[in-house]
Amino acid sequence: MNDTIAAAPRHNAAIRGRYEGGDGDAPMTALIRPATPDDLEPLLAMQQRSLRLLGAAFYDREVLEAALAEMGTMDPRLIGDGTYLVAELEGRIAGSAGWTLRKPNYARLMRETLLPLPGRCGTVRSVYVAPEVTRRGIARRLMAAVEQRLAAEGAEVAELMATLSGVPLYDALGYCAVSDHVLALGGRMAFPVVRMVRPMPAHRAVMAHRAGAAAPCPAAAAAP
């Protein structure tokens, strides 16, 4: 896949369309808990399956396989840091998400330099939901838990690199797309992602005051 083809799906209406999280089956009540080292193997299996199946409408198969081989689905150090959560349903992992205040490991694959955001920034990491339980509220609950913990650690702005398949969800959660980027895989394939940001509630009011007017998307004031 060349870079021109890879970047094109970003502007497809299906990607930018509204995330209809409430139109699936009834919401599921999952246990949200910190991940443990024993979770790593089933976590990776769920994440790989999720990326392959849910990403198939947005990325070529060879690009997905290259992404799995070169950057994987998560940084296992997040488990040791205590900054990775799992959603558990009937004893099985149905979703996962984490956060960090340090530079993410995928940064080495970025073709462009990321401009700094104002305020103390925390990065949302590796958000996945098992394909069979999508649109059941699990991703929303995980994101709420992650943002709560980021705010408790003093983060003023949350940022993430969204896969094309994840953009509608983050749009619905109040994140703003601020820039498109490409991760270089093996020097020959491109994995397009979207940088999205959302200010933490306490910081949002400050930014709106500085901007002089409320923006349609509150995080727009945080964009470089």
Automatic annotation (TrEMBL):
One of its GO terms (molecular function) is acyltransferase activity, transferring groups other than amino-acyl groups. CDD domains: NAT_SF. Keywords: Acyltransferase, Transferase. Residues 30-201 form the N-acetyltransferase domain. InterPro entries: Acyl_CoA_acyltransferase, Bact_Acetyltransf, GNAT_dom. It holds the Pfam family Acetyltransf_1. Gene3D superfamilies: 3.40.630.30. This is GNAT family N-acetyltransferase. It comes from Falsiroseomonas bella. The lineage of its organism: Bacteria, Pseudomonadati, Pseudomonadota, Alphaproteobacteria, Acetobacterales.
